[in-house]
């Protein structure tokens, strides 16, 4: 069960990085309080600060890729452990 729980948690994290509409509609966008990374990118783009928006988007992309790489590595390790038993 542990591999499934870990994978689900990491996939949920990666998926939540892209949430935009639900956060904006439910929580609003209060800078420093309810602002998420996608909302910060949106706000920076709306202000015309493209360099900050691009930097935040790059960080968000790298975080999502990192989470997916961790899932892959954990899956490979757990498969190797399962094959030994």
Describe the protein's architecture and organization.
The chain has four helices and no strands. With 85 residues, it is mainly α. The protein has one domain. Helix 1 (2-17) runs antiparallel to helix 4 (50-84) and helix 3 runs antiparallel to helix 4 (50-84). The two termini are 16 Å apart.
Question: Structural class, judged by helices and strands?
Answer: mainly alpha
Helical residue percent band: over 70%
**How far do the termini sit from each other?**
16 Å
SS summary, helix count: 4
Using only C-alpha atoms, the radius of gyration works out to 17 Å
The 3D shape can be described as elongated
Relative strand content: under 5%
Residue windows where pLDDT falls under 50 for at least 5 positions: none
Mean pLDDT: 79
**SSE topology string:** HHHH
Main attributes?
mainly alpha, 4 helices
SSE blueprint and pairings:
Blueprint: H1 2-17, H2 21-26, H3 37-47, H4 50-84
Quick rundown:
The chain has helices spanning 2-17, 21-26, 37-47, 50-84.
């Amino acid at each position: 069960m542990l591999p499934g729980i870990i994978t689900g948690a990491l996939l949920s994290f990666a998926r939540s990085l892209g949430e935009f509409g639900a956060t904006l509609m439910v929580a609003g966008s209060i800078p420093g309080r309810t602002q998420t990374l996608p909302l910060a990118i949106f706000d920076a783009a709306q202000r015309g600060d493209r360099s900050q928006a691009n930097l935040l988007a790059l960080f968000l992309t790298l975080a999502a890729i990192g989470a997916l790489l961790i899932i892959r590595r954990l899956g490979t390790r757990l498969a190797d452990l399962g094959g030994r038993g």
